[in-house]
């Protein structure tokens, strides 16, 4: 089984089964090449939104173990273990705790590599079996990496091809060369891969910074096939979201829409407002445009909206009498009541009288507002 | 309002505050509406000592000074 979109014959292998791997299929390999190597494989189109959700769930569980979680790519995360010594017996115990946490959260068996530096840790995780923890003791990085194939280096395809041409098949082969020679051949990338092969990786951990967001969703008993109904559902969701205490005195800059289709696929779109807003009509207008342009291939089973990018609410001065036309009847009614109470309308209106006059106070006049 | 011998404003009183005129930025005269109630005004655009800019006029018919709040 190979996960990858086959309709266009483009893109790369996202993942594959052990059987496909045995045929030579590798992650990130062009799908066309994978098809050539394993023509009998079943190609499964990826459901990236769902994978993203599952991965996010795993990251949240990992964050309960260490606050330093760096999501490198879908399915791969680096975790800073500094400061955890007092909580666990040894490093292997941390690895076991991480493996158990992932298993409990997702049912998946993670491969875990424990090492100094991101690169060695990644290689250790790659070569270990699912559910296993591979520990590379500090100072043993070069020895551990020595027999590993250079294809695991993070470098360009061109460089990999050249390494192969030079007969450099393992990291040990590369690490044995003088750095100057590698650098002379491959430039700055040469120095980088030479250091990686030595187990030297100074790339810092970039811990995930979670942004505050609020989310609401609606599941439809009968899947929706009508876009107008979807907009109505969007209005309901926005009403719920804007009524939440988290929105009090705050405005949102981003709105993420997600529709779950009945064929199991997902449609996602993130919309950014020009400025943070709490205006439901403005949000709805943007949402409507997005829904009208959405390539919806099947009925919608579920719609969710997430608001994020919160900022302080800013006021906008609107015209009292000429702003929102829908408010006119309300203003007229309020003035009628004031007039009944005070005998005359206490609301005045500025009207243009002689705009051409050289005398400023002749240009406008203040008259009673009496709708 | 305080003016010198030539009629140039020297200081103004805004509310309870007396402020000296730092500069007279502009002046102009309007004579109008002679057909109903004659109007003759000498306008001054002033820069005050605290940096505020105000427009005042001397009503040449009544002799009163006033501040022009809009225009």
Topology:
The complex is a heterodimer of chains A (371) and B (71).
Chain A: E1 2-3, E2 15-16, H1 18-22, H2 31-37, E3 43-44, H3 48-63, E4 69-73, E5 76-79, H4 91-106, E6 112-114, H5 118-127, E7 133-135, H6 141-145, H7 157-165, H8 171-175, H9 179-186, H10 188-198, E8 213-224, H11 227-242, E9 250-261, E10 266-277, H12 280-293, E11 300-308, E12 311-312, H13 328-342, E13 348-352, H14 360-363, E14 364-368
Helix pairs in contact in A: 3-4, 9-10, 11-12
Chain B: E1 2-3, E2 9-14, E3 17-32, E4 39-48, E5 53-59, E6 65-67
Antiparallel strand pairs in B: 1-2, 2-3, 3-4, 4-5, 5-6
In short:
The complex is a heterodimer of chains A (371) and B (71). With 371 residues, chain A is α+β, with helices and mostly antiparallel strands. Chain A is built from 14 helices and 14 strands.
Textual characterization of the structure:
The complex is a heterodimer of chains A (371) and B (71). Chain A has 4 domains: 2-46, MutS, DNA mismatch repair protein, domain I (3-Layer(aba) Sandwich); 49-198, DNA polymerase, domain 1, CATH 1.10.150; 213-312, DNA polymerase, Y-family, little finger domain (Dna Ligase, domain 1, 2-Layer Sandwich); 325-368, no CATH class. In chain A, strands 8, 9, 10, 11 and 12 form a 5-stranded antiparallel β-sheet that branches. A 3-stranded mixed β-sheet of chain A has the order 2-1-3. Chain A has a two-stranded antiparallel ribbon with strand order 4-5. Chain A starts with a strand and ends with a strand. In chain A, a hairpin with a 2-residue loop joins β4 and β5. In chain A, 20% of the residues are buried. Helix content of chain A is 38%, strand content 21%. Chain A has helices spanning 18-22, 31-37, 48-63, 91-106, 118-127, 141-145, 157-165, 171-175, 179-186, 188-198, 227-242, 280-293, 328-342, 360-363; strands at 2-3, 15-16, 43-44, 69-73, 76-79, 112-114, 133-135, 213-224, 250-261, 266-277, 300-308, 311-312, 348-352, 364-368. Chain B has one domain (2-67). In chain B, 0% of the residues lie in helices and 62% in strands. Chain B has strands at 2-3, 9-14, 17-32, 39-48, 53-59, 65-67. Chain B has a 6-stranded antiparallel β-sheet with strand order 1-2-3-4-5-6, with no helix packed on it. In chain B, a hairpin with a 5-residue loop joins β1 (2-3) and β2. Chain B is elongated and about 40 Å long. The chains are: A alpha+beta (371), B mainly beta (71). The interface between A and B is small, with 6 and 8 residues.
